[in-house]
Design goal:
By secondary structure, the chain is an all-beta fold. Helices cover about 0% and strands about 40% of the residues. The chain is built from 1 helix and 27 strands. Strands 2, 3, 4, 5 and 6 form a 5-stranded antiparallel β-sheet that branches. Strands 1-27-26-25 form a 4-stranded antiparallel β-sheet, with no helix packed on it. The longest helix has 7 residues, at about 5-10. The chain is globular. About 50% of the residues are buried.
Length: about 375
């Protein structure tokens, strides 16, 4: 993929930001969480790639990195190896398309990819894994979803602590959710889905999904009211779910659900953007407001959700949720207790055009810059 300048990439690819300002990255707001002492960290560049976009912890302590054009490579001591998977002739990097997410199941027995095909359809495929290697002949398609536009595809995938596959899909694109998909329950768009890929063909619906008894709703839906949940994660220490949902024009948000959630959360889009009515919208009665939001009065334009740090290398960082912004690039932390942000910090490091975070098998975190850098968060 031809890599473009920051401004054109923002408009034409992943983040769809339309403007930047030159104030501080986070304007002071009433009742803002107190600043917390930042851990002393550094970003150590460990490899470069062609538009690294997602990653996952793999067998034998490996980290697998997806490149947007369609390749997957394994990170080793000497950087990235040769591709172990190449679907570059099956996808396109037009708009916000491409290979968008990768995940292993909890037994590391299957590898999943999330991509848009040449027609723009969001597609989840599965491969068996044996002795740490993908078995190409085992490939099968698990789920597809047509996309009306080439943006807001979402595309992140993760296995939850419950062993089920969670899939993030954006509202279908354009701007302002013209089809109202965020609040509709008869479409998979604008949702987090929860399925059991091993329980049926092509998958089974967990019996305790929140809408399985609703004839007017899709059984796959776990939560809804999302615009473009570009990156989400589960806290490996608590099982809590955290979602970075990219805003329309004014507010970026991070949503949270506890590990004991029964699903069904409505995060408000497109009636709400964060805690604010969107274009005269009325707040839904069941709206679950974000645990944190920030405006675009500064350099931020598109939130990149990360992970709660559970590694051992940086004790002072333990328990903080790390996130960034594609336009600002600063890595920041939130302390969240019982669904409330009790502290926030600026870690003083910048990952460039931060498009994703990756958690390895030991809980250490990597930062992916769309321009090519793969950096590990280390003690300074």
């Amino acid at each position: 993929m031809k890599f473009r300048t920051r401004s054109s990439a923002i408009i034409g690819t992943i983040c769809l930001a339309t403007s930047l300002a030159f104030a501080t990255a986070y304007a002071d707001e009433p009742a803002a969480p107190p600043k917390a002492a930042a851990a002393d960290v550094a970003l150590t560049e460990v490899a470069t790639a062609q538009n690294p976009i997602a990653g996952a912890a793999g067998p034998d302590g490996t980290v697998w990195i997806a490149e947007r054009a369609g390749t997957v490579r394994v990170l080793g001591d000497q950087g990235l190896g040769e591709p172990v998977l190449d679907i570059s002739d099956e996808t396109t990097t037009d708009g916000e398309r491409g290979l968008l997410g990768v995940a292993f199941d909890n037994e590391l027995a299957h590898f999943y990819i999330s991509y848009t095909d040449l027609e723009g359809t969001s597609t989840i495929d599965e491969f068996a894994v044996q002795s740490g290697a993908i078995q190409p002949d085992s490939r099968r398609t698990v789920l597809t979803q047509t996309q009306p536009y080439e943006n807001h595809n979402g595309g992140d995938i993760k296995f939850g602590p419950d062993g089920y596959l969670y899939i993030a899909l954006g509202d279908g694109g354009a701007g302002g959710d013209p089809h109202g998909n965020g609040q509709k329950l008869d479409t998979l768009l604008g949702k987090i889905l929860r399925i059991d890929p091993s329980g049926g063909e092509p998958y089974a619906i967990p019996a305790d999904n929140p809408f399985v008894d609703d004839p007017n709703a899709k059984d796959e839906i776990w939560s809804y009211g999302l615009r473009n949940p570009w990156r989400f994660s589960f806290d490996s220490g608590t099982g809590d779910l955290l979602i970075g949902d990219v805003g329309q024009s004014d507010w970026e948000e991070i949503d949270w659900a506890s590990a004991d959630s029964e699903g069904g959360e409505n995060y408000g889009w497109a009636s709400m953007e964060g805690t604010h009515p969107f274009r005269g919208g009325t707040e839904p009665a069941n709206h679950v407001p974000p645990v944190f939001e920030y405006d675009r009065n500064g350099l931020g334009c598109s939130v990149t959700g990360g992970y709660v740090y559970r590694g051992d290398a940086i004790p002072a960082l333990q328990g903080q949720y790390l996130y960034s912004d594609y336009c600002d690039g600063t890595v920041r932390g939130l302390t969240i207790e019982n669904g409330q942000v009790t502290g926030q910090s600026d870690l003083g490091v910048n990952g460039g055009e931060v498009i994703s975070f990756v958690e390895d098998g030991d809980g250490e975190l990597y930062v992916l810059g769309l321009g090519g850098t793969i950096s590990r968060i280390d003690p300074a």
